[in-house]
Amino acid sequence: MDTTKEHADSDRIVVGVDGSVASMAALRRGARIAEALGVRLEAITVWQYPLEFGGYVTSEWSPETDARAVLTESAQKVFGGPPPEWFLPVVSEGSAAQVLIDASKGAEMLIVGSRGHGGFVGLLLGSVSARCAEYAHCPVLVMHNADRETAQPTAIGAVA
Question: In CATH, what is the architecture of 3-156?
Answer without folding.
Answer: 3-Layer(aba) Sandwich (3.40)
